[in-house]
Specification:
CATH class of the largest domain in chain B: Alpha Beta
Largest sheet of chain B: 8 strands, mixed
Strand content of chain B: 15-25%
Radius of gyration of chain A: 28 Å
Number of strands of chain B: 23
Distance between the termini of chain B: 55 Å
CATH superfamily of the largest domain in chain B: L-asparaginase, N-terminal domain
Shape of chain B: globular
CATH architecture of the largest domain in chain B: 3-Layer(aba) Sandwich
Helix content of chain B: 10-25%
Oligomer: heterodimer
Structural class of chain B: alpha/beta
């Protein structure tokens, strides 16, 4: 394969190709209970208490035809297993009880976020169902509602528009997806989530990442949201001129956005080039004269990858698909290290459920596999190839192979359309893989189980009064105080943001120095188990204020801070018994999100580490407490 | 402009629509002082307030806009919702059994109009084939819509029509009958059909859904496939209810019409056989009998239909401190029969005795069932019971209260002679009274117990 190099910093390149990016930020908000039932919010790492099995079936849509995505997911005929947890789920999550009335705390919190982002609040909330057939929600749809519309955030002297802010229920956590069975954990299901949707106002990959960071940090700084791994996920929509909207789903790290969006733009540009090639060569997708041959017998008893797979319990089939005049296109790189053949492989993985890699074997890439040349020679004797022809081998259960062959043909035919409107997943190496065809607005319909919710003007006013100064307003102020960009960014995330504001309010204090302590020094001390966020706030302010006004040397201030944190009393002064529980719960959740299948030993080590971090002294007591809890 | 332009709207919202030229299904720009909204005006639910206009935005989401805010409505286009399901011809094959689906009003299959959110029922074979194409692998299907009523509105008139139609279908030679029915009163209809249609040569299978068919997680298609399979292929010639076994999509249960009851307001696996085990399990491919003592399919067409019902029957659910005026009002209103759902083994309090005696003296048939649902009425154990029998209250063994209620209506439709009524009530017609209760006829697994939790963690529910 030719090497594909992308300069993700080349803003003018992306702008010249009409790069457009919109964001959908999904952020869990901090409520005690779930959105449509009374289950407590929080993840668990316990073994499940029971499982249920379901299937998803597409419903008939407007034209009486199955909706594109719906049909695609039905083709895969997955068994969906839901894991149930006594302390996290009830019959609502099982889709065996209709929804309870929407959690009003969640509505208020979402409304505050919407107001924070300058949205208009809607007069009456209507719960609607957004269909998802991937099984991630047992009902087959997500309950969601618009809270606000037409908001904006300032960015580089212009407004990034926020078209919509929704309140919705979170979906299940995927545990595994192998062959025809997909397993979900239901603990995350129905946790209140807000979705902030921007217009496609970002013009290059840098802007996409920066705006995403601004939106995320604003919500964190305002204190509305749950923190921790998995509490925020962003979907990123990218298109280029001549391309189409492609959604990269579930990006966990904002840091990946720049590379992912750049790569996606390049992939679309590549697909547009392939479109030219394809339409130049074939009058229509039907004009490609494929040939197929069942070559199972060739492989039975052989020792290569395919031969070994044939040894499995299930009777498998091997089919060779002859793809004429497509070899160069299949081998055209679209993302770094990934060619069009990879796109074919992705579709086959999702649609035909053939997911053991490699799931397709290309003659043109035969050096990648352990299939001997003699076998390839036998195949090409019955399916003779010209220089630009290729042969694709598919191995799997008979029905899946038929689906796979069909899907390969469909995907190749789609080359005539250029970019396909699809959802892709972040595969964590900077590139993306096919997930599903993008659902449209036509899969939304009203939730007849829930009445409309009237929002009074008094309620909006009350929520408006309780929102804080917006982060970008703060940031602008900080910049005027002379803080440099890194300090502004670090301060935006710091737990000592409010302390900084108090310090900086005094003209006698050098704001840059104050920011240095609030954004860097004290945050850095946390790593050394010095936790000033639990110190007496008044004492901490007095100390820093005096130190900064009197211009103490750095070493003195640091020593004084450490002393303050230690004189702050025992951990139990910071944490009563119930707070130990809170910490425990937090650590438990953290573990669940980080390692779904951790061993008990790993769990012990993790939770001990997490809790001790919060208790720099009196460790013996705390250890005792932890040991007691673990043995429960 | 006629009223269909304001479907569901009232009050201020309707006034504003009328004044500013807005109408349902129109694509509009709604101008307000705070900003504009672009979307389709949707009909409003009759029960919602009169202050808001419902709009479906381009994103597919709905919102309500306070009518008072609206300054101007600009219609950009208009497209009425189409309430029609495209039909595909249901394929006929010689080697498949002919099954008739009788519709009573519940939606078995439906299609969603995403634009409006309306659920449009699919019922003709062609429509059903479009919605559940797998049916064609099971049988040749004919459909007949008898009426369109919600489950809770089913009553004697519908039961009689249904029983008579079943008779005609059997005479026509169908291999099985499926009845689409709302789930709420499915067990009442199942019981009454068990009495009205006797000696059926073919399966009569009632089916419905607990999750409507417009949802991807619906149980409707699976239920329908199982029911069609049972009707076309099983050898069980009885009135049955065919609904989910576990809440997982695994298999359905075939419950005897007189022993089945809806036991949960919303679970998929809501129907349970009470005081016995179900007749069989069924998937769209196979029926696996659990019981052996069921009536077998025959080749003849010799069915007996006795479609009669006396409506002057009531069911009284006893509670502590019940006053005799409850019974007396039934007497005063000229009721012919009363089923009591009594406590424990079949008891009511003493203050009711004179009223019960009065009822008996007036020739009103009074039968006792148990509100525990499981177990037999046993009125010899305590004095209370013996006293009541002396007043003329007749113990109805282990008949379920609902099964006894419809049976009494059916019996009184044939005779008012007290001796005859008693004899007919206590002679089982279709398993409504059983002589023996098997040890596993009462199994409600108690959650939380270690062995039950262990069982649950090992198996799908």
């Amino acid at each position: 394969m030719k090497e594909l190099e992308i300069d993700i910093d080349d803003k003018s390149f992306f702008e010249s190709r009409g790069f457009k990016c919109g964001l959908e930020i999904h952020q869990q908000i901090d409520t005690e209970r779930k959105l449509f039932c009374h289950c407590p919010v929080g993840l668990t790492n316990r073994r499940h208490d029971a499982e249920i099995l379901r299937h998803m079936r597409p419903t008939l849509s407007e034209l009486g035809e199955y909706d594109g995505t719906a049909l695609m997911e039905f083709k895969t005929k997955k068994e969906v297993i839901y894991r149930l947890y006594r302390d996290r789920t009830c019959t609502y999550e099982m889709d065996d009880t209709p929804p309870f009335l929407v959690n009003q705390d969640a509505v208020d919190l979402a409304m505050r976020v919407a107001l924070h982002f300058n949205c208009r609040i809607v007069d009456e909330l209507h719960v609607v169902r957004k269909q998802y057939l991937d099984g991630s929600i047992p009902t087959g749809f997500q309950r969601t509602m618009i809270i606000g519309i037409d908001g904006w955030v300032p960015y580089k002297g212009r407004k990034i528009r926020i078209s919509q802010l929704n309140l919705e229920e979170d979906s299940c956590r995927e545990v595994s997806d192998i062959g025809h069975q997909i397993i979900f954990a239901t603990d995350r299901l129905s946790i209140p989530l807000i979705e902030v949707i921007t217009d496609a106002d970002m013009k290059n990959p840098d802007e996409a990442a920066e705006v995403c960071r601004l939106l995320g940090n604003s919500m964190k700084a305002a204190g509305f949201v749950r923190r921790g791994i998995g509490t925020v996920r962003q979907d990123v929509n990218v298109s280029v001129t001549g391309g189409d909207r492609v959604e990269i789903k579930g990006v966990y790290k904002v840091g990946n956005i720049k590379r992912l969006t750049a790569t996606e733009a390049v992939r679309q540009i590549g697909l547009l080039d392939l479109k030219k090639m394809f339409t130049g060569r074939f009058t229509s997708p039907e004009a490609v004269s494929y040939k197929e041959e069942n070559i199972t017998s060739l492989f039975s008893g052989t020792a290569n990858t395919i031969g070994c797979r044939l040894e499995s319990d299930q009777p498998l089939k091997v089919v060779a698909l002859y793809a004429p005049n497509l070899r160069d296109m299949i081998n055209t790189p679209l993302q770094p290290g990934r060619d069009f053949g990879f796109e074919l492989s992705g579709r086959v993985r999702v649609i035909a459920c053939i997911d053991t890699k490699p799931n397709l074997f290309f003659l043109s890439q035969k050096e990648r596999y352990d299939i001997p040349d003699s076998l390839w020679d036998t195949i090409t004797r019955s399916l003779p190839c010209e220089t630009n022809d290729d042969i694709i081998l598919v191995c799997g259960p008979s029905a899946d192979v038929a689906t796979a062959i069909n899907e390969i043909k469909i995907r190749i035919g789609e080359l005539a359309d250029g970019v396909i409107n699809e959802t892709r997943q972040d595969i964590k190496d900077g590139s993306t893989d096919f997930e599903r065809i993008l659902p449209g607005p036509d899969r939304m319909y009203p939730d007849t189980d829930h009445p409309p919710v009237k929002i009074t003007e008094e309620r909006v006013t009350k929520n408006r009064d309780s929102i804080q100064e917006q982060l970008w307003v703060k940031q602008e102020r900080w910049r005027k105080l002379g803080l440099h960009e890194e300090q502004v960014a670090a301060l935006s995330l710091s737990k000592f943001l409010d302390l900084f504001e108090r310090l900086a309010a005094d003209r006698a204090v050098n704001p840059k120095k104050a920011a240095h302590y609030c954004a860097d020094v004290m945050v850095g001390l946390r790593r050394k188990n010095v936790h000033l966020e639990y110190a007496d706030a008044k004492k901490l302010y007095t100390l820093l204020h005096r130190a900064l006004v009197e211009d103490w040397p750095y070493a003195h201030i640091k020593a004084a801070l450490i002393a303050l944190s230690q004189s702050g009393g025992t951990p139990d002064d910071h944490y009563g018994t119930s707070d130990f529980d809170t910490l425990w719960k937090k650590a438990e959740n953290g573990f669940a999100t980080a390692k779904t299948n951790g061993s008990p030993d790993k769990f012990r080590r993790y939770i001990t580490g997490q809790i001790l971090r919060e208790y720099p002294d009196r460790t013996a007591d705390v250890l005792e407490k932890i040991t007691a809890r673990l043995s429960e | 402009m006629n009223d269909s332009n304001f479907k569901g709207y009232k009050g201020r919202a309707k006034e504003v629509l009328q004044a500013l030229g807005g109408r349902v299904w129109a694509n509009v720009i709604l101008k307000t002082n705070e900003g504009d909204f672009d979307g389709v005006i949707l009909p409003r639910s009759e029960t919602a307030d009169g202050d808001h206009i419902v709009l479906k935005l381009k994103s597919g989401y709905n919102i309500g806009v306070r009518a008072d805010r609206v300054r101007e409505i600009k219609e950009t286009s208009f497209k009425e919702a189409i309430y029609k399901i495209p039909e595909k011809e249901f394929p006929f094959s010689e080697d498949k059994p002919n099954v008739t689906l009788l519709g009573t009003g519940g939606t078995i299959a439906s299609r969603l109009d995403y634009r409006t959110g309306a659920v449009i029922p699919a019922f003709t074979p062609g429509e059903l084939y479009g919605a559940v194409p797998e049916l064609a692998d099971i049988c040749n299907l004919e459909t007949l819509k008898l009426f369109g009523v919600f489950s809770e509105n089913m009553g004697p008139e519908q039961w009689i029509t249904l029983a008579e139609e079943i008779g005609r279908q059997i005479a026509k030679g169908v291999k099985g009958i499926v009845i689409g029915h709302g789930t709420d009163t499915m067990h009442h209809t199942a019981a009454v059909l068990s009495y009205m249609v006797q000696n059926s040569p073919v399966p009569i299978v009632m089916v419905g859904s607990q999750r409507s068919s417009d949802r991807p997680s619906s149980d409707a298609a699976f239920n329908l496939r199982c029911a069609a399979y049972t009707a076309g292929h099983s050898d069980i010639a009885e009135v049955m209810v065919c609904m989910f076994g576990p809440t997982s999509d695994k298999y359905n249960l075939l419950h005897r019409g007189t022993r089945v009851r809806k036991m949960h307001s919303s679970y998929r696996s809501t129907f349970r056989t009470i005081g016995d085990v179900p007749i069989a399990t069924v998937t769209p491919e196979v029926v696996t009998p659990i019981k052996t003592d069921y009536k077998r399919r025959r080749d003849d067409k010799d069915v007996t239909v006795k479609a009669v019902f006396d409506e002057k029957v009531s069911i009284v659910y006893y509670y502590p401190n019940m006053r005799p005026d409850i019974i007396e009002s039934l007497i005063d209103n000229d009721y012919h029969g009363i089923i009591i759902a009594g406590t424990g083994l079949g008891h009511v309090n003493k203050p009711l005795y004179p009223a019960l005696k009065k009822a008996h003296d007036k020739g009103i048939a009074v039968f006792m069932t148990v509100q525990t649902l499981w177990g037999y009425v046993q009125m010899y154990v305590y004095d209370t019971g013996r006293d009541m029998m002396e007043l003329g209250v007749i113990p109805a063994a282990n008949m379920l209260p609902e099964a006894a209620y419809v049976k009494l209506g059916w019996v009184l439709g044939q005779t008012r002679d007290p001796g005859k009524v008693k004899e007919m009530m206590l002679t089982p017609v279709a398993g409504e009274i059983t002589e023996r209760e098997p040890f596993d006829g009462y199994l409600i697994l108690q959650g939380g117990i270690p062995e039950v939790e262990d069982f649950l963690s090992q198996r799908y529910r």
